[in-house]
Design brief:
The chain is mainly α. It has eleven helices and three strands.
């Protein structure tokens, strides 16, 4: 995989929400609907990492009142997609190489266990859920749709945690999924062809189908991407989101 440091740096411009328009939501004033629009705008880069989220502008742009907007911002803060700083306001979270490295270190140890627990369910409907995510990833790659490819990528890995039938494992995945999604939205731009990502996951699924845990563990050690030591050192020890 090419070095994504330059891609990382290119996303960190602090554009304000006054510079973008997300479009009016039209009568859908529930906080969940507002959060859905903002979440997509963050993950596809319309709202760049580090950019301030001005409530007045967002409420006017989306055509909603401040109450559902504030509740939506709270939901996104719980997901780790935004941070709130006292007396300064809300900002789109910034992905930290050190934080991604820490998540990768956990995934390399926990994902093989999730797959081991999921093995009895990786038949029939269980395997179908993994295959559907892989098929969706392939279709998105065919259309060169980065955002949809990232979502399918997350769905592929999430399926093993769901099929593990282990509540705490799934909660761990849910706790870092949004941050991973932000990272991959940046990192996958380093791929010359999104089909490379599809091929990696086809290989991983083939090894999982083989059922040998040592092989699965070795493949995941290579498959799970972690920022380079140079990126982590340049990060200066910052936490997962700034």
């Amino acid at each position: 995989m090419p070095d994504s440091s330059a891609q990382f740096a290119s996303t960190l411009g602090h554009k304000t929400t006054n510079d973008v328009s997300l479009g009016r939501i039209e009568l859908r004033t529930r906080p969940g609907s507002v959060a859905h629009v903002l979440r997509n705008a963050i993950l596809d880069g319309t709202l760049p990492q580090g950019s301030p989220l001005r409530e007045t502008h967002l409420a006017t742009d989306l055509g909603v009142s401040r109450a559902p907007l504030r509740e939506a911002l709270g939901m996104l803060a719980d997901e780790g997609l935004i941070v709130r700083i006292p007396y300064r306001g809300a900002f789109v979270a910034e992905v930290s190489p050190r934080g991604m490295s820490e998540i990768a270190s956990l995934r390399k140890r926990l994902e093989p266990y999730a797959i081991e627990l999921a093995m009895p369910r990786l038949q029939g409907a269980g395997r179908d859920s993994v295959k559907r995510a892989l098929d969706a990833m392939r279709r998105s790659a065919d259309q060169n749709d980065l955002s949809a490819t990232v979502q399918s990528h997350m769905a592929f890995h999430r399926a093993f945690y769901e099929l593990s039938d282990h509540r705490l494992l799934l909660e761990l995945w849910n706790g870092w999924e949004a941050q991973l999604q932000m990272f991959f939205s940046v990192d996958q731009r380093a791929f010359a062809d999104l089909h490379d990502l599809v091929e990696e996951h086809e290989r991983l699924l083939s090894i999982i189908d083989g059922g040998h845990l040592d092989d699965i563990t070795r493949e995941l050690a290579v498959h799970v991407h972690s920022p380079s030591p140079a990126e982590i050192e340049a990060d200066g020890g910052n936490p997962t989101v700034r």
